[in-house]
Amino acid sequence: MNDADLLRYLINSVQKEGQKKYAELLSPLDITPNQSEVLQILAKNEPLSLKELGNLLICESKSPSRLVQRLVENNLIYKSQSIEDNRKSVLHLTSKGRQLIPAINEKERLFNAYNINSLSDQIDTNTLIDILKHQIQGTESEQKIDRRIKLDASHD
What we know:
The protein is mostly helical. The protein has helices at about 5-25, 35-45, 50-55, 65-75, 95-120, 125-135, 140-155; strands at about 75-80, 90-95. α1 (about 5-25) crosses α5 (about 95-120) and α2 (about 35-45) crosses α5 (about 95-120).
């Protein structure tokens, strides 16, 4: 196996194993990592249209309509008519969804600590972040991450 193939397989494997570990942490809450991302974004930025939500989601590259529908069915979010434009619907957390946020944030904190701790002895985390940012330069993923960074900064 050449280095390029190995690198590709390692990146895919790290992502897959990370998703699996995060899913295990979230399983007692009966939500998936992708669902937790939707709930966390809405907790900080509601109301959002489906398109606005999709522009912030890292987990979805297409429309998050199925993901949102599942959360509506589980009574974690609901749709309402936009006050600014009655042709547009917007998404909100339900009280059940809002109650999950502290637990989701704690699971995310544990997962992030696990990731940082597993790397810190091997490599400088900032160097790895710089390398990975370089790899997605000029992509839709870079734009979504930049939007999320700006939104998070505006809430601090």
